[in-house]
């Protein structure tokens, strides 16, 4: 089997000089697919994703994007390499308008990005409607759309989402997942951390269950949902 | 070299510098530096309590120092009977009415129901209170200030021994600190800085303009002393005899004797305050203060009332500055409101604390002495340096003239650079916190 | 009817016009403070002295121009010297950022540390300005003194009271409007301006978006230098230049910035006018206005001055205290550009 498009291979590491949080943890996503990281609280889900994005020290193992080793790159450089990241909180410029948020997302682009902005507006029509409103005044679900839209402005090949549905209602969550599937259909790989494990695994091509910073179960979304052990321990029966 | 040895060495250095001044320049200068050094050390001890131990920014030290000076006048000057007759009781009444209006203002703000009722009610109370106070106060103030303005024109003080004014100065400063602390503590740290900057400017404005209280820019001179007067000493045959037996002329001997007297008094205050500060630092209270400084969130989470603790330490630190201010005015034996300059009385104290070592009481005392020494000595050094730099220039060169005249401002520059260099390369100061 | 008009003219002459001019100067000063706060996240206590430095350079260049016989017709020569002042101040603040502040940014120091560092910078600037130009009052206004003179106004309207508008007051207001318009255009319409707002709003996300923090900081200081020099020069033209007064301006300027909401440019402008109008109305002697408005028998004996002008700082302080007690975030919610 050829190597996945993005892979965090056998990563071990932690924040700064702190203790290791990840232990030989592997996370990967194929082109145009959705990979989901689930697990109990404190399992290192977000940490694993931040490791892939270069926000903590990976002491052993490597991160490769499209076959290229990017382990040593800073997060900013990874953005230039085509990775988009949506943090869990503080992921929008609250005092700026929706359109300005998207413009800032495209800050590093020197070419004309109006096309991309149209695509984002097509994907999230509500944002077109509210383009001149301050992003901080929008509802929780709409803000998440702004956050995802901002990250899409660099035309990333991989989009990483840290708990995109935290704090939104179930209806909004379903809608967000639909959008995420749509994004994936355009050929963008999606790597996301989710608290709502069951719903997330339903849309996932690949699922990773982490426990204490290490891979506990790995499989397709369907396999994990069907796995009795996983259901019992992590999905509440 | 161990830490203790280093501390001794640094204090020995200060001693050498002061003694050196005595041998090279004059003993009067040396004692002047020593006395102001003692006062500066007390001030920086107070600021260290606030900044070093609690992390509070006080940018209004000057105001608290000036309140100490005010206390000296109000406590020790003889009352002016004519002025009291002219309007004393009415001024007291005016102050009482003012206090009542402030209480009414606070009550109307806290007790009235929120919304328009409160807004309008509070404004009405404020306006009425202001006018009533002014109408009582103004005529009395005019009457008092009209009494022999060239010599008095103010109410005078209580005529009590001047030493009493030292603790009173502390109380005045504590009261002002309470008001500021209540307002600005618990908010962002910069707000306290700006609020203290403001109150200190206002205190100076009051001292300059409320002539009935402080004679304003006419200054109060001849504040009684806790030590003998030089002329009395010179007239005392036994003193003259002893002076000559030391090989000193009576003039010099008397000035040195007086300055030494102050030095002893100041040293006693400094030692007592240092001992108290050290005890406080080592007590559970001190440990809690430092814990709060190092991690306020955690301290709050543990149920500590951070704001109340901050208020305590802020009041204590300011009170110490007030005591030092009273001591300084006592030594000068005059109150000159226009001499209070923020650069000298606020920011220089900051340099002392940072250079000495914030968080360490001994460090701030060392900083007080050392920085004060530099402050005094950089001026002649700067002038000398300018003379050397400008010596190749023509005698009548305008630039030369300007440079020599401006040499005095070299020390502001030097102190600023000194502070920046310390902050950058040795932020813990000369004697770091343990 | 005439009385009312006369009262209005007195009011305009002694309260409205001076307060508008002073408010514009404070607003420009407060904008500088608020920009530093929004982007660099500390209260810059050296701002008053930065203004003094910029004004000093303007004065020196003005003197040089005057000695060469260059003038700006009816307008003050200082306006011609302004670009030089801005350039020198820009070099100064960006230099001080490189030599002083940048280190603390890299070590991610607390805002309090920045504040103390700015005290050190203030000390240095204080010494520098006094060293170069001395501590005394300098007057450098030239050109036409008035736009409207009291006598002309009386002749024109036939009223008993006159109205004067000083050239410096007119220039202050016009310049302030131009500068504020340019600033808002820059912040809201240009890529660099938007990146500054983004950085101020959410630093981490700005970094993720590839915004270069050093570039943002550079432009911020550049704008702050311009604002400080312009504010200082206008104040100096309108009143006079004295280094210590500029240090004291820190209080009303900070009060203005906090009243409006630290970090909020719109708030800084509003705050500037709130402070200026309160200061002028509270320290103005209302006797004349009231005498015109009320029946003769009610005319007041005293000056009807709430506070003497020596206490003008008390006014900004009181407003500051009221805002801190009631709404610490300011009238306009602060924290970002």
Count of all domains of chain B = 2
In angstroms, what is the radius of gyration of chain B?
A: 24 Å
Q: In whole angstroms, how far apart are the ends of chain B?
A: 16 Å
What percent strand of chain A?
15-25%
Number of helices of chain A: 10
CATH fold annotation of the largest domain in chain B? ABC transporter involved in vitamin B12 uptake, BtuC
Average residue pLDDT of chain B: 88
Structural class of chain A, please?
alpha/beta
Helix and strand pattern of chain B: HHHHHHHHEHHHHHHEHHHH
Structure description:
The complex is a heterotrimer of chains A (237), B (434) and C (337). Chain A is α/β, with parallel strands linked by helices and 237 residues long. Chain A has ten helices and ten strands. Chain A has helices spanning 45-53, 75-80, 98-105, 114-123, 125-129, 140-152, 170-185, 197-203, 221-226, 228-234; strands at 6-14, 22-29, 34-38, 57-65, 68-69, 83-86, 158-162, 189-193, 206-211, 214-219. A six-stranded mixed β-sheet of chain A has the order 6-7-8-3-9-10, with helices on both faces. In chain A, strands 2-1-4-5 form a four-stranded antiparallel β-sheet, covered by helices on one side. The radius of gyration of chain A is 17 Å and the shape is globular. In chain A, 45% of the residues are buried. The mean pLDDT of chain A is 89. In chain B, 77% of the residues lie in helices and 1% in strands. Chain B is mainly alpha-helical. Chain B is globular and about 75 Å long. The longest helix of chain B has 33 residues, at 250-282. In chain B, α1 (3-24) runs antiparallel to α2 (27-53), α2 (27-53) packs across α15 (342-356) and α4 (81-111) runs antiparallel to α5 (116-146). The mean pLDDT of chain B is 88. Chain B has helices spanning 3-24, 27-53, 61-76, 81-111, 116-146, 165-184, 189-209, 211-214, 230-235, 237-245, 250-282, 284-294, 296-301, 306-332, 342-356, 361-390, 398-406, 410-425, and strands spanning 220-221, 334-335. With 337 residues, chain C is an all-alpha fold. Chain C has 14 helices and two strands; from the N terminus they run ααααβαβααααααααα. Chain C has a two-stranded antiparallel ribbon. In chain C, α1 (2-40) packs across α13 (287-293), α2 (47-67) runs antiparallel to α3 (78-106) and α11 crosses α12. Chain C is globular, with a radius of gyration of 21 Å. The mean pLDDT of chain C is 89.
């Amino acid at each position: 089997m050829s190597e996945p498009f993005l892979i965090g291979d056998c990563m071990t590491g932690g924040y700064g000089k702190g203790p290791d949080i990840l232990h030989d943890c592997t996370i990967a996503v194929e082109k145009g697919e959705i990979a989901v990281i689930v697990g109990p609280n404190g399992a290192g889900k977000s940490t694993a994703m931040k490791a892939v994005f270069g926000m903590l020290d990976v002491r052993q193992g490597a991160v490769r994007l499209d076959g290229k080793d990017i382990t040593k790159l800073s997060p900013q450089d990874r953005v230039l390499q085509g990775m988009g990241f949506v943090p869990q909180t503080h992921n929008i410029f609250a005092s700026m308008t929706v359109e300005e948020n998207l413009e800032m997302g495209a800050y590093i682009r020197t070419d004309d990005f109006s096309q991309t902005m149209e695509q984002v507006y097509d994907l999230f029509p509500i944002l077109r409607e509210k383009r001149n409103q301050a992003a901080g005044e929008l509802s929780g679900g709409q803000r998440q759309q702004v956050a995802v839209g901002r990250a899409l402005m660099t035309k990333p090949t991989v989009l990483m989402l840290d708990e995109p549905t935290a704090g939104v209602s179930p209806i909004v969550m379903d809608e967000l997942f639909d959008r995420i599937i749509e994004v994936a259909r355009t050929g963008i790989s999606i790597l996301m951390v989710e608290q709502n494990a069951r719903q997330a695994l339903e849309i996932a091509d690949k699922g990773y269950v982490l426990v204490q910073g290490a891979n506990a179960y790995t499989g397709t979304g369907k396999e994990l949902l069907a796995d009795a052990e996983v259901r019992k321990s992590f999905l509440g029966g | 070299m161990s830490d203790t040895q280093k501390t001794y060495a640094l204090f020995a250095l200060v001693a050498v510098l002061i003694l050196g001044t005595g041998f090279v320049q004059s003993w009067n200068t040396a004692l002047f530096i020593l006395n102001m050094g003692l006062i500066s050390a007390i001030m920086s001890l107070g600021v260290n309590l606030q900044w070093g131990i609690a992390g509070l920014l006080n940018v209004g030290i000057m105001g608290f120092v000036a309140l100490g000076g005010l206390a000296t006048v109000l406590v020790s000057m003889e009352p002016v009977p004519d002025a009291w007759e002219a309007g004393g009781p009415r001024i007291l009444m005016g102050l009482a009415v003012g206090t009542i209006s402030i209480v009414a203002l606070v009550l109307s703000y806290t007790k009235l129901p929120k919304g328009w009722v409160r807004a309008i009610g509070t404004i009405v109370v404020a306006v009425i209170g202001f006018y009533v106070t002014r109408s009582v106060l103004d005529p009395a103030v005019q009457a008092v200030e009209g009494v022999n303005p060239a010599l008095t024109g103010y109410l005078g003080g209580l005529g009590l021994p001047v030493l009493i004014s030292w603790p009173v100065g502390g109380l005045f400063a504590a009261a002002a600190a309470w008001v500021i602390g209540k307002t600005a503590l618990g908010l962002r740290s910069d707000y306290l800085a700006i609020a203290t900057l403001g109150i200190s400017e206002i205190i100076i404005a009051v001292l300059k303009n409320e002539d009935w209280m402080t004679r304003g820019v006419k200054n109060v001179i001849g504040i009684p002393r806790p030590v003998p007067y030089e002329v009395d000493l010179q007239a005392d045959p036994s003193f003259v005899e002893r002076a000559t037996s030391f090989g000193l002329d009576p003039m010099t001997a008397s000035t040195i004797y007086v300055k030494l007297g102050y030095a002893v008094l100041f040293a006693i205050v400094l030692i007592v305050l240092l001992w108290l500060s050290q005890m406080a630092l080592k007590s559970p209270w001190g440990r809690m203060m430092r814990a709060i400084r190092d991690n306020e969130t955690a301290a709050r989470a543990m149920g500590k009332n951070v704001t109340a603790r901050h208020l305590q330490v802020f009041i204590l630190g300011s009170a110490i500055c007030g005591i030092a201010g009273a001591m300084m005015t006592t030594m000068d034996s005059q109150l000159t409101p226009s001499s209070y300059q923020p650069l000298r009385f606020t920011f220089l104290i900051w340099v002392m604390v940072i250079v000495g070592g914030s968080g360490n009481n001994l460090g701030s005392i060392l900083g007080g002495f050392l920085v004060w020494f530099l402050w005094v000595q950089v001026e002649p050094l700067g002038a000398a340096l300018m003379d050397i730099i400008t010596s190749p220039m023509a005698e009548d060169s305008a630039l030369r003239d300007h440079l020599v005249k401006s040499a005095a401002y070299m020390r502001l520059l030097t102190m600023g650079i000194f502070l920046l260099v310390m902050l950058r390369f040795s932020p813990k100061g000369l004697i770091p916190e343990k | 009817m005439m009385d009312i008009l006369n009262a209005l003219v007195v009011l305009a002459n002694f309260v409205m016009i001076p307060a508008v001019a002073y408010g514009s100067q404070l607003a420009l000063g407060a904008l500088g403070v608020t920009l530093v706060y929004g982007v660099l996240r500390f209260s810059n206590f050296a701002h008053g002295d930065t203004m003094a430095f910029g004004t000093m350079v303007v004065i020196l260049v003005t003197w040089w121009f005057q000695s060469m016989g260059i003038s700006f017709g009816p307008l003050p020569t200082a306006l011609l010297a302004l670009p030089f002042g801005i350039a020198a101040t820009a070099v100064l603040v960006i230099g001080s950022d490189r030599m002083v502040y940048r280190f603390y940014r890299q070590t991610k120091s607390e805002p309090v540390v920045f504040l103390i560092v700015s005290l050190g910078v203030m000390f240095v600037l204080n010494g520098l300005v006094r060293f170069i130009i001395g501590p005394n009052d300098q007057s450098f206004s030239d050109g036409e003194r008035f736009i409207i003179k009291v006598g002309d106004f009386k002749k024109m309207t036939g009223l008993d009271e006159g109205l004067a508008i000083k050239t410096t007051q007119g220039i202050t207001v016009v310049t302030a409007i131009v500068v504020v318009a340019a600033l808002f255009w820059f912040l809201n319409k240009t890529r660099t301006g938007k990146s500054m707002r983004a950085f101020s709003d959410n630093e981490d996300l700005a970094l993720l978006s590839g915004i270069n923090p050093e570039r943002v900081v550079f432009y911020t200081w550049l704008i702050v230098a311009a604002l400080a020099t312009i504010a200082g020069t206008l104040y100096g033209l309108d009143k006079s230049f004295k280094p210590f007064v500029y240090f004291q301006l820190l209080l009303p300027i900070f009060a203005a910035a906090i009243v409006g909401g630290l970090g909020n440019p719109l708030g800084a402008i509003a705050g500037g006018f709130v402070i200026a109008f309160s200061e002028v109305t509270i320290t103005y002697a209302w006797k004349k206005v009231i005498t015109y408005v009320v029946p003769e028998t009610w005319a007041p004996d005293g000056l009807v001055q709430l506070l003497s002008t020596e206490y003008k700082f008390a006014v900004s302080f009181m407003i500051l205290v009221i805002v801190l007690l009631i709404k610490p975030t300011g009238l306009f919610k602060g924290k970002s550009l």
